Amino acid sequence: VQEAPRLGRPSTSANEQAIDVVRKIIEDDPHSTYQQIENILGISSTAINSIIHDYLNLRKICTRWVPHKLTDDQKQLRIQFCHHSLKRFEEGQSRCVFYIITGNESWFYHYDPELKEQSKVWMSTTDPRPTKIHRIKSAGKRMVAIFFMKSGLIKSVPLETGATVNASWYVNTCLPEAFKAVSERRETRDLICPDDTARPHRAWITNEFLLENHVEQYPNPPYSPDLSPYDFFLFPKLKNQLRGIRFNDDNEMLTALQQAIDSLTKEDFKNCFEDWFIRMHKCIDTEGQYFGKINKNPPLNIYPKG
Questions:
Q1: Alpha carbon 1 to its chain's center
Q2: Which of 31, 45, 144, 201 has a C-alpha 20 to 30 A away from that of 254?
Q3: C-alpha span between 14 and 22 (Å, rounded)
Q4: Any idea what DSSP says for residue 118?
Q5: pLDDT higher than threshold 70 for residue 294
Q6: How far apart are CA 177 and CA 196, in angstroms?
Q7: Domain 72-121+134-285, CATH number (from 3.30.420.10, 2.40.50.200, 2.60.120.10, 3.30.499.10)
Q8: Could you tell me where the beta strands, DSSP code E, fall in the chain?
Q9: Burial class (CB in 10 A: 0-12, 13-18, 19+), 118
């Protein structure tokens, strides 16, 4: 009678049997911890670390959150938008890029906690790790629409207290103020206005208003914050400056927001639009999927002039 093999502590911790068992544990549950594997195998965490990294060549990483699970059709729309935009605007080199006015609305809070990354501080290896009380966003907040172009900021338009973002507000208050600010710099004819799928932006009265003002609607693909300049550049940059500061009321928050807006330079807006076209290449390279950090090196020009 032969005794059935037992896992126990092997004479050599990183033997083939232990490696196969660790591989099977991780395949069955990718969230497995060192402690769980150690309890099953009865070998040290040092040996487990060697098996995972040296033999299985694995590393544990955080899942990257994405805004939406894209369908194949949505991926194709993203790719088509990028190809069309790169060709039309000559990889961002066309003068028509200066005709683009983009913007959207977003909530700004009386208190918005710092991101975990923002709370990092340099410490001596002998100092105790700092702690921080978990905070949540305040109930006090204000919706603000902000418009900008490659040449710089155009206009910020706070939503009136108690009002609602709808097509009427968009065409009677928001867009007129933005276009008036543009008219102080140049003619408003032939402006190009990228928009998203929000109802106020696609309502028939919005379409009529833009048509009457000779402004071209340029629809962004749906579920694409990584291809929307206000989502990947403007709002994160402004909100990061306000995080961790507690404001007593709307006026204090709006004053601080305006200071954050004023701190942006022409170079910031120029870089934003350059990044936009680099992101289009990245979207095409990833076959329409969401992508991570972009490479700042400019891609080859696949849509030459002429």
A1: 64
A2: 201
A3: 10
A4: G
A5: no
A6: 20
A7: 3.30.420.10
A8: 102-109, 141-149, 152-158, 192-195, 216-219
A9: exposed
> What would the two tokens of residue 243 be?
């995080």
**DSSP letter string over 275-301?**
HHHHHHHHHHHTTT----SPP-SPPP-
228 compared with 15, residue with greater pLDDT? 228
Q: Residue 43, Cα to own-chain centre: how many angstroms?
A: 42
User: Do the beta carbons of residue 221 and residue 74 sit within 8 Å?
Assistant: yes
Beta strand 192-195 with 216-219 is parallel
pTM of the model: 0.72
Mean pLDDT to the nearest integer, 193-206: 91
Give the pLDDT band of residue 266 (cuts 50, 70, 90): very high
Going from N- to C-terminal start, the domains of the chain cover: 16-55, 72-121+134-285
DSSP 3-state assignment of 125?
coil
Measured N-to-C along each axis, helices 204-212 and 175-183 cross at an angle, to the nearest 10 degrees, of: 20
Place of tokens 């899942």: 63
Which of 61-65, 140-144, 156-160, 289-293 comes out lowest in average pLDDT? 61-65
